[in-house]
Amino acid sequence: MHGSAALCYQLRVTLYDLIADLRRKYPTPAATETLDAVIAELGKTRDNLKSAVANLQARPIPPGGKPVLDELTTRAREAGIDDLDYGPDPYDKGMAEPLDSATGGIGLALALSSLAAVGLAVVAVIAGVNAILSTPGG
Predict the structure, then answer these.
(1) CA-CA distances (angstroms) from residue 87 to 8, 14, 24, 35, 55?
(2) Which residues have CB under 8 Å from 71's CB, separation 6+?
(3) Burial code of 103-134, b = ≥16 C-beta within 10 A, e = fewer?
(4) For residue 83, which of 73, 70, 91, 92 has the smallest C-alpha distance?
(5) What φ, ψ does residue 21 adopt, rounded to 5°?
(6) Residue 102 and residue 133: Cα distance in Å, rounded?
(7) Which tens digit of pLDDT belongs to each residue from 101-117?
(8) Which one is predicted more confidently, 80 or 119?
(9) Please, what sign has the CA dihedral across residues 25, 31, 32, 37?
(10) Within 10 Å of residue 18's Cβ, how many Cβ atoms?
């Protein structure tokens, strides 16, 4: 990287950088509790600070936490990272597609073979216990 591209790369800041900076700047229980709540909401909103703060409005913020939250939102807005959109959650799976008859048949064959193996194991245990109990002196 050369020139302004390298400088721009070095100056890129994330929401979590801002939160870490605010934790150092405001080492109070109220600030810590507020920032912890923000992080919990960021996890639910896929790092969208606007949505996270909107969700926090329904809950009481600790006394002294409001200025920290305001500074976080202001700094994030100035950095252009307050309203991130990463698209739909890749782990949020929709409805499973219906099974076709071949897949269902394979599943049925696997289930039946598993049941047969368990049945054989039970028979082997019973035969072993019988053999032990029927030996003279046992």
Answers:
(1) 24, 18, 32, 24, 19
(2) 22
(3) eeeeeeeeeeeeeeeeeeeeeeeeeeeeeeee
(4) 73
(5) -65, -45
(6) 47
(7) 888 899 999 999 999 99
(8) 119
(9) negative
(10) 23
Distance between CA atoms of residues 18 and 75, nearest Å: 8
pLDDT of 82 > 50? The answer is yes
Per-residue pLDDT tens over the stretch 18-73: 999 999 999 999 999 999 999 999 888 888 888 898 888 888 888 888 999 999 99
- Single-letter amino acid, residue 15: L
